[in-house]
Protein: DNA polymerase I
Organism: Paramagnetospirillum magneticum
Amino acid sequence: MGEAPRHVTLIDGSGFIFRAFHGLPPMTRADGTPVNAVYGFTTMLMKLLADSSSDHVAVIFDSSRKTFRSAIYPEYKAHRPPAPEELVPQFPLVREATRAFDLPAIELEGFEADDLIATYARLAVEAGARVTIVSSDKDLMQLVGPGVEMIDPMKNRTIGEAEVREKFGVSPDKVVDVQALCGDSSDNVPGVPGIGVKTAAQLIEEYGDLDTLLARASEIKQPKRRESLIANADLARISRELVRLRTDAPVPVPLSELDVKPPAPEKLAAFCAAQGFRSLMGRLNAKIPTAAPTATRAVLPTEAPAEAPSLPPKVETAYELVTDLAALENWIALATGGGLVGFDTETTGLDPLRARLVGVSLAVAPGRACYIPVLHAPAQAQGDLLGGPSTDAPQIIPAAETLARLKPLLADPSVLKVGHNIKYDMQVMAMQGLAVEPFDDTMLLSYALDGASHGHGLDELCLLHLGHANIPFSEVCGSGRNQVTFDRVPLDKARDYAAEDADMTLRLHALLKPRLLSERMVSVYETLERPLVPVIAAMERDGIKVDRAQLMALSEDFGRRLTELETEVIALNNGEAFNLGSPQQLGKVLFETLNLPGGKKTKTGQWATGADVLEELAPLHALPARLLDWRQLSKLKGTYTDALVAQINPATGRVHTSYSLAATTTGRLSSSDPNLQNIPIRTEEGRKIRHAFVAEPGKKLVSADYSQIELRLVAHVAEIAGLRDAFAHGADIHAITASQVFGVPLDGIDPALRRRAKAINFGIIYGISAFGLAAQLGIPQGEAKAYIEAYFARYPEIRAYMERTKEEARDQGFVTTLFGRKVFTPGIKDKNGAMRAFAERAAINGPIQGGAADIIKRAMIRLPAALAAAGLSARLLLQVHDELVLEAPEAEADATVAVVKQVMEAAASLSVPLLVEAGIADTWGAAH
């Protein structure tokens, strides 16, 4: 896994294919296979990657013609002719081309490529990244907005809000309504007869949106237009559902796994050679970078809250470059006298433990800020590197002197330091031996107030609340292969960019902090978000020790077993070798060579070979079963054993994960670089990976895990008497449920019946359907439905809670946890049943999962002081879902467990007891 996303590029692969096919003359390779689309696709992809500064890239394809839209309107795209015969064999080849560049080729049955692009775009902006969509498809223009732009690769033209307005006559957020009115003959979207784009735009601009227009259609003066709108109102609404892109599609590959990796030249060369692309082979080294591009700063996600505040007046800026001690002392005096200072750091990279401090910026009032360089290249070198003229630059204050003067200010308890994602700046300054306290964090202020209703990147918030577009990182550091680190930026450019960050952070603070009181979110910010920052910062700095030799041995073992599995699979294929990683070759083996039943082809004519297909075939033949084993082991090796070795910090011998504090809907923390929350623990191989996380000599790892915390929260918030009683008496909750729901005495509960009760208990939290429960338990759907109904009959309080919670979400657009956190539920009033149902499930689960997140945060905040008060030196290292991992001296391990259990079990006062299970061992795997 790479850096957290900063710039995500989503390539409309299907659009690329058709553009290439129709734009190039016929071409064939030696065996007669048409390859003109493949050639054009490969050329465009090569150019795009060479010019891109993105750190996360994916190519998205259409999977099949039939999608959920076909159920809404059977005529949708029904009139389209099949793909040209010469194009069909090229569909799988362009996917091979994508993989040759080491990029994910993503598609999903039942959804169009545009829906996946819309979903990834949403995920990216929620993660604080900016998005570039490479396509000229007008249907994607509805996604354009702050932080999301399109690029037409053929015309090399950027499509922003101005270009969308030129095309549709309205802003991007109204494109769907215009398309719903004018329809689209190419996709068979009916629209309203007699209304074209221009008229539709005029109507939407006048009435605001489609629903208002249709409700007031009788007021329209033109008779034909009025009659057509009234008669075809339902068609307009259906058309809107057809053209509106889904942003909640299941993503086959997590956003975090789209990180750019340097493509292997030999793999690309082999692909080009196989297609006969001799001219491209000679351009590979010149066009494709040999290292992944440096991540750019996060900017501009899209959604705004329903009621954005009015913009403050414009402020004249006066940014100063501080290069002498007198000026530095003056700024320190201003900050000290005002008791409030905006604070930001500039560094050479995104890892605060390895990056070098380049400079510090301070802001004391709106528009009044400075930049204090600490590490910058000489002006001559800057000019040479950036391709501009060199200029004389002043000498900067020696770094040691600057830090010595700043140290008292940053630790002054009478001066509030205001940062944006200040955890990063605290880490950077801690590496210099400086503490930053007390502090406020505008990212966390925004997150506490608005949750996941929009992203919380500085640039997005500045646009949203201040109407100000910050200087792009690429404007000062360049992009692509010409990008330089911040220490190479000329001082005048560095001043404007860095001082602006501190200035805008201070301005945001003035707008956001007062909202805490008026919106009753003081407790969430002051007791859950802000006090967690130093705890997480210390965890990240401490990291956890990893046994490099054990990981390497595991990797070798996995590699050996992969070879054995490959040999076994080939033997099961009558000794005929094939590429186990090629879905195309695997499909032929399964459904053509072995003639296994149930094969389905995708839109490209390729056999579907996903995990679900292999699982269905596994009972019928040993080959798909072994293939599943091979895939699982291959992922473990590539994602964990190989990758974790590379992520060990050479200076500490430990892995230092990074926790995102404002990334999830429910308030849970998310881990990255590496993601330690996704290490599988249900398989033997996954557990072996956890055994590679070890304690230092003379110490032990302590794992403390909440037992069934979400079920306990369900019992509490839904006031379920039966479950409360069971938890109060420490009974086996699943056995009790089985007994009460199925009417079987406790001593007659067999493991199979308990397993069914357990599936229902946990499934209810996530709104499990009869279909989902039937699939999980391997029982008929009717039987699963009967189980769920019996559950509701025994525990009617849970159904009452569900209905109450959905109503709350419909009324206010969010639900709240026990501690006041808002969990937003977009789509709760959507007319699309599937989207509405998804939002309803999120509403039901929000107070439960969000409450669990709040409880463990409360425990984490209290733990350091409790351990210190007990005279213990244990350190908190990891938080993984409902589990905390600490490292303690061996002699203190038992005492540490006692304190940790006491703090965690007292983190919330519920109507059922919280229970923590703890273990002590030399490895994480053994302790858990």
